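Retro notes
What went well: the complex prediction finally ran end to end.
Inputs used:
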Amino acid sequence: MAEIRIKNVAKQFGAFTALHSVDMTIRDREFMVLLGASGCGKTTLLRIIAGLETPSQGEVWIGDRRVDKLPPRERGIAMVFQNYAVFPHLTVFENIAFGLRMAKLPQSEVDRRVKRTAELMHIEQLLKRYSGQLSGGQRQRVAVARALAMEPDVILMDEPLSNLDALLRLEMRAELKGVLAESKTTTIYVTHDQVEAMSLADRISVMNGGYIVQSADPVEVYRNPAARFVGSFIGNPPMNFLPATRAGTNQWTVAGRVVPGPNAPRDRIEFAIRPEDMRLGEDGIPATVRVVEPLGAHTLVTTDVDGSMLRALVDSDLSVAPGDHLSLVPQPDRVRWFDPETMEAVR
Amino acid sequence: MTTATDTVSVTRDEVRSASKWLFVAGVVMLCIWVLLPIYFLMINALSSPEEVTSFPKRMFPSFDLASVTFFFKFQGVLRALWNSVQVASLTMILAIGLGAPAGYALSRFDFRGKEAFRFLVIMTRAFPLPLLALPLAIMFIRTGLDDTILGLALVHATLALPFAVLITFSLFSGIPVELEEAAWTLGCTRIQAFYKVILPLALPGIAASAVFAFVISWNEVFAAAVLTIQNRTLTAFLLQSLDVSPLPLKFAGGAMLVLPALIFIFAVRKYLFAMWGIANR
């Protein structure tokens, strides 16, 4: 059992607050992704769980042990670093065996575990090499194998794929997902890549400015952002936002059209829609085309609506050119609303 | 329009080729400045005494070892040589024993006054040794450290320490902190991580830094001359006795002094560049 509970954890670096009182629970065997832009506190949170950073306040529990005062080696964790941190003076075999030797396991057990994890990561043929003789992808595999060989309660990964080229990243992503699901280990994975987060996670925690903004499964995070930031961060291209003014009870005026909406205690709120949730039709949002970008399956059209930018993904058969006037009809059940003061969703 | 661009590009080319010439000329000047004296020293040391005093001078040595042999048979030379080796070895041990931990601390920990400390380390080089020599000599006589190997090694270690600190600082800074952190997560204490991961990676550089401390002590003449009387190091001995020696002996002695330093420095040159922030790969 390795449920991780983080209670009221905060971290200040001098006058800078990297984390504001974070509470979260990561369930046993869950794949949790911490997602956010650089500087949002996600790596700090991971390093606090690992024991590489001391929290300014709060508690960290792994299973039924409070670990925030323990050194990293006593926490039952293994970590994969962004730059792999494969020891250059040791062979791949000795790298994978490093932690096992520190734990003073018998040689037969060391051999067995190194062999098994090396096979799992497809690096059996590299065991005698040094890290200088490996490619980035191979080093990444060694780093993961080294972590898995420890058979830890928790695996922590700090942007493990961000130094790989795009094609390799795709390949490793799928492989990691398989291997980690197989290992049944609780995993915390830090990334700034939303696609990686969506594809890997059981649950995503979106972080911004030292706060956890939303923790939910990937589809929920995508469909129902709890805050404007989540909508604007996740999705490529991200959510569109248009100003809305009150037109009556539960009625709002958006780009000259009156649409039904929530009952918010304000006169101005924001209307939000994802680019793929609009179609061309009668009586839609009047939009002037500015830029047309064919993407293959779809065409991304950037338009101007009363001075606001609105992006729509339309069928690539459609021929549009800059200057055209379109009428974009939002899919009613996909429309979301945000309070421009609190930046939170209005339901 | 076209003409204007042409003019500009021609001018730019001229500037580029002029600066290239200046660069090459500078490099040649520096090389002559350093290499010419060494070259003359070597020629004369390896020529017979008659050739050294004759005219015109030879451009190539005759590989006559008479001067060198005579130099080594000169009374007191071997003892001074042995003193030099002892002092330099002790200097090396002191400089690395104190300097490497300081370099590690500077590269890995943030502490109050870190920048001031780094500055002070360099500042120790700003005090001219002649100014310190007299008080030092008196202090050494009072404590009984005068004319001892240890006393001189202490002074030389002070001279070598700033370099030991700076070289090992840049050395440890070049080793990613993640390697250490990975070792911690894999079951190491801080000290185990240092011995199992950092030390093997830093060892060649530490050795280089030790050699550099050795050379600093080997070459140092002022403190050695002031603080020793009976137990002279080679530099101090040569300063004292070569003044009144014949020319071939001076050349032989000079060459014997320069040679070990040259060989050592050449062997560890890439780590010394690291001290100034040029890549240490």
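What we learned: The interface with chain B takes residues 50-52, 71-73, 77-79, 81-83, 85, 87-89, 98-99, 102-103, 146, 150 of chain A (CB under 8 Å).
What to try next: split runs per interface for comparison.
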